[in-house]
Amino acid sequence: LPPAFYWRPDVWALEQERIFRREWLCVAHVDQLRTPGDWRAVEIAGEPLVVTRDRAGELHALSRICRHRNMDLLHGAAERSGHGSFLQCPYHL
Question: What is the reported pTM?
Answer without folding.
Answer: 0.75
